[in-house]
Amino acid sequence: MGLRIRASDMTNSVFALLATGECVAKDSWFISIRIIAYRELNWFAVFGLDGTYATALYTAAVKTSALDPTAKALSSLEALVSKDAKLSTILAAPTLSAEDKTAIVAELTKQAGAGSQETVKNFLAALAENNRLGLLPGVCQKFGEIMSAARGEVELIVTSATQLDNKTLNRLESAITKSSYVGQGKKLKVTNQVNPEIVGGLIVEVGDRTIDLSVSSKIAKLNKLLTDTL
């Protein structure tokens, strides 16, 4: 178990640094520390160093009343790095010079449409200062998880062999919303993933629960039964 710290206990550390732009703290201080953000999140936790930065950014954005534009900027950055493998490699390069980092931060800020968002610029500068630009994809993902928790969202991932139509997805969403899988007052965030390898049927993931109704799963179970019998 790591050390549990309320966000409010750290306002003079990385959260304050991100909010003010004084990005001089070394992230080694956060290793093995579990940061738990508390803002109506019921102690929602994100782990790892990327989770630490994501939590710091979230708290700084709240304190500067810049949560929505920050979320929009992080979403843009996530889309940018996810579609450009070369960019991810460059960000993780250990040989980046100070000039390289400055140029990268400026370009990322531009691509994120965050030219006027000091919180985002300071966050990117903090990653660069600590040689952690390679964490950006993970930070974007963890930030999204924190935002979902703040909005009371529960992720629903429906995997199918082919793309499902909106009517089918809406029926699934309605049925699962009424089930015990979703807490009271929670909202579903629905994603349809396509994987032809499941052959048919569905794999439904709600939060940390998985319901495997795929044809491939049934075939695998049948094969195991036949193998065990023979």
From TrEMBL:
InterPro entries: ATP_synth_OSCP/delta_N_sf (IPR026015), ATPase_OSCP/d_CS (IPR020781), ATPase_OSCP/dsu (IPR000711). Pfam families: OSCP. It comes from the Eukaryota. The keyword Ion transport applies. SUPFAM superfamilies: N-terminal domain of the delta subunit of the F1F0-ATP synthase. It is found in: Membrane. GO terms for molecular function: proton-transporting ATP synthase activity, rotational mechanism. Keywords: ATP synthesis, Hydrogen ion transport, Ion transport, Membrane, Transport. GO terms for cellular component: mitochondrial inner membrane; proton-transporting ATP synthase complex. The keyword Nuclease does not apply. PROSITE patterns: ATPASE_DELTA. Belongs to the ATPase delta chain family. This is ATP synthase subunit 5, mitochondrial. It comes from Colletotrichum fructicola (strain Nara gc5) (Anthracnose fungus).
